Amino acid sequence: MTQLTRYTPVNSLKPFKTAWCIQVRILHSWIHFTKGSGMSLEMILADEAGNKIQAGIKKEHISKFQRYVKKGDWKIIDDFSVNKATGQYRSTIHPYRINFHYSTVFSPSPSISNEVWLDLVDFTTILAGNLDQNKLVDVLGQLVNVGEAQTIDVQGKPTKKIDFQLRDTDDNRLPCSLWGKFADQISKVAQESLGSIVIVLVRWAKLGEWKDIRSISNAFDASDVLINPILTEVEDFRRMLPSDGLALTIMGPKPRFQPLKVREQRSLGLPLKTIAELKASYEVEKVKIFCTILQIDLDYSWYYYAHIKCNKKVVQSKKLLSSGAKKLFYRCEKCNAEVSAVEARYWLHLDVMDSTGESKLMLFDSFVEQIIGTPATELLEGTNEELDDPLPVPDIVKNIIGKTYQFVVLIEQDNISRGNDEYKVNEVLTSQNLNQADLKAEVDYPVDLSSMSSSDQVLMLTNSSDKDETINTSLSTPSSKRKEDGSDGSDQNSTSKKQCTGKQSDAKDNGVIGVDNSKKTDQPTDLNVDGAVDLDNPKEHDQPKFLHKLDEAGQEAITKVSEAEQKKVLLKKIKVEKIEGQKGAK
């Protein structure tokens, strides 16, 4: 009996002396690093009553005591000091912590209990924000909606991160993020246990809050993650889960860009300008423009490499090793440090035009990926070396040539007074997929179609193939609008003419009247975002030069690629088709 009473309960430990003796179980241990104290070996101890306290061994004593520290073991520990517990991420509620000295003695102890003494916190308390964020908590939940693992730069080192949700027995959802080895652990479980019920216990989890969203994550290695642990609490939790059959699912990657409607709404107050107005502007501002991409300026590389942490360009350098060999490395232009965590990014310089003139635009990575849909890293297939010549532009990037987009463009002081004729793109709003109704919401030019005579001519821009000269069905006039109608008395036997029988109301709905596949014309056009003439704005684009420039751009694109590539180039030839009036030419 006297042997049992000589051990001091953990809750009774105080700083006034060092001659303490305790009998405790080691629940958890980890190596910890701090700027002020350096490295230490930390552990969480519990006595037979379940009272817990954090203890630490300084770097200089680790080699002596590390062999005695084994998770799950019971130990008798003599002669140590007790100090006030301070700082962030405290693993216990005990007001003090233990510091071991060189004279501290570890002795083996018989096992008293296999209990782990969980202090589970319910989700509603966490989500309500009623807890001290400096204290770590135990959380138990069902693993659902696992996201895609990411690699993020942390203090110059690439580190894995994974986001997921836990749900409780009341179907409350708690956002979670785990880093490092724990991210790998969850990612592996998600792949192997897809469609099954997975219970996750996160011990000593860190509380977090961002934009009023509360979540948990691991506090470095101070946390511990257990998957389907064999514990009474876990079995009770599993039985109380809702009987809805919800199992583990993999979430797709988070959308990198805001939805189109959000971007459109945010840009409503910006003025819409032509390229001529853009170049004549003398005010620092943001404006919207519609323009067609003529070519990619290949004087510049279409990609660059960036430091993941700083999100800034890196430059490749060489250093001489002691062996005489030269080692290539990257140096970040922002932090001026040697870095290894780099990835490829888009950086396009474009020649663009509308009916009023030409200009140059510069698009950074996120905007290019938005319209192409593929990250630059995938196109470069893991290449991360700076080459004497940049890699050829992939076909998927070339496909933007000839397409029309709506951009928000920055007019900066460099453009106004310092002779910079290249404008930065601040946002991509719409592309060729924009329908006619959306375009009219942005460009509203009233026109009275009833005033148009039957001999009025309009034009439509179509993409043609050198191989078959067939008109792209997505851009041509619907066949129902090109059927011959004998009631108008026109020549039905002409092989060089197509009769236009659509009524004026139909023309207004469809934006075009008819198509003649026979020849070019120098008639003025109005190019809309779908590649067709906009009847709502017949006078806006009155310069034949616009169409000629587009035709030249198509020819130039053809001559710059090999015969094997010609089949893949989107804009091989641009033909301007003449559409005759309702009665046709006589």
TrEMBL record:
<feature type="domain" description="Replication protein A OB">
    <location>
        <begin position="130"/>
        <end position="218"/>
    </location>
</feature>
<dbReference type="InterPro" id="IPR003871">
    <property type="entry name" value="RFA1B/D_OB_1st"/>
</dbReference>
<dbReference type="GO" id="GO:0003677">
    <property type="term" value="F:DNA binding"/>
</dbReference>
<feature type="compositionally biased region" description="Polar residues">
    <location>
        <begin position="489"/>
        <end position="504"/>
    </location>
</feature>
<dbReference type="InterPro" id="IPR013955">
    <property type="entry name" value="Rep_factor-A_C"/>
</dbReference>
<keyword id="KW-0862">Zinc</keyword>
<keyword id="KW-0863">Zinc-finger</keyword>
<dbReference type="Pfam" id="PF08646">
    <property type="entry name" value="Rep_fac-A_C"/>
</dbReference>
<keyword id="KW-0238">DNA-binding</keyword>
<dbReference type="GO" id="GO:0008270">
    <property type="term" value="F:zinc ion binding"/>
</dbReference>
<dbReference type="Pfam" id="PF02721">
    <property type="entry name" value="DUF223"/>
</dbReference>
<feature type="domain" description="Replication protein A 70 kDa DNA-binding subunit B/D first OB fold">
    <location>
        <begin position="7"/>
        <end position="108"/>
    </location>
</feature>
<feature type="domain" description="Replication factor A C-terminal">
    <location>
        <begin position="289"/>
        <end position="440"/>
    </location>
</feature>
<dbReference type="InterPro" id="IPR031657">
    <property type="entry name" value="REPA_OB_2"/>
</dbReference>
<dbReference type="Pfam" id="PF16900">
    <property type="entry name" value="REPA_OB_2"/>
</dbReference>
<keyword id="KW-0479">Metal-binding</keyword>
<protein>
    <recommendedName>
        <fullName>DUF223 domain-containing protein</fullName>
    </recommendedName>
</protein>
<dbReference type="InterPro" id="IPR047192">
    <property type="entry name" value="Euk_RPA1_DBD_C"/>
</dbReference>
<comment type="similarity">
    <text>Belongs to the replication factor A protein 1 family.</text>
</comment>
<feature type="region of interest" description="Disordered">
    <location>
        <begin position="462"/>
        <end position="543"/>
    </location>
</feature>
